[in-house]
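Board notes, transcribed. Complex of a protein with adenosine monophosphate.
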Amino acid sequence: MAMRIDQALVVTAADTLPSPRVHLGNPRTGATLRIQQTLIAGAREFLRAGGAVEMSHPIIGPVTDPGSRGAKQADIDYYGHQYKLMTSAILYKQASLLAFDRIFLVAPNVRLEPIETSSTHRHLTEFRQIDVEVAGANRDDAMALAEGVVRHAVTKVLVECAADLAILDRDPAVLEAFIREPFARVPHGEVVRRLRSGGYPQAPGTEIEWEAEELISRDASAPFFIAGYPKGSRGFYDKESTAEPGTLLNFDLIAPESCGELCSGSEREFEYAKIITRMRETGENPSKYAWYLDVVRNGIPASAGFGIGVERLTRWVAGLDSVWQATAFPKLAGVVSP
Ligand code: AMP
Ligand code: MG
């Protein structure tokens, strides 16, 4: 795997991670991992009850999604071919709808995130997503499903993990209040207006910056959706609105308590010609995506889906300072670790 690491930054960031013996021996880690197990079990229970079939996707392949915000892909030599470690399962999720109308994965992702993310408290270089895709669904369906998964998983923790929440000093009443009401849906433009009127210089028509996301997350009284990110901020597979060209039919779910983004989702581009156009617009070379385009050319269902970050969800539910605490063997950008 090709990876260059700045030694000075490695030392600084490594200081923030305890050894495996200290981390795994800490009762707080045990409580956190039991909560995580319960969250995954809750998500699985909810999705299977709704008719979704659990699949798995390859971890290595000839191409992965283009990514964003400066995350790099990790290469692997596959019998003389340059393969990638998956930064997300999106291409396989769309193709999997050829087998089933509703699918989900608990999918590992590897992203070589920029060095500066080692101090955001929100970024790992290896993490998992509860990844869902539903044929024939629209954005509202996907948001409702994501909300259902989160509410069911958190409720299961409240029912089954009282002792673990106590170890972590996490007040169950606070958590319960967060999921009591339906999650609000706020258009991207409205979030930009609120940020700017509060004095934050968020540029319109672009991705919400990490600092800004932390601010709106800190001020939120419950998880909420931001809907309709501008084209250019996301990958070619997020469908563009025909009613509002330039706006994508996508969403993020933002957690309260400064935890930021928990989940991203979207209706998908599924028509061959549109996908090619969007690839070109986003600077992607279609020839890299041969297997995927081959599948798409012969027809895949219209769909919508999302991915919930397992460690991000755990961090929020367990009330942790940082996302690395929500994994047994944390990997932070630039940190040499097990
Ligand atoms: P994305 O495809 O970037 O929208 O990622 C989907 C979800 O995975 C996000 O909403 C996060 O919950 C989670 N996620 C993305 N990047 C990271 C990361 N570097 N570390 C931990 N979780 C992440
Ligand atoms: Mg996202």
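Confidence is low (pLDDT under 50) at residues 1-14. The two ends are 15 Å apart (CA to CA).
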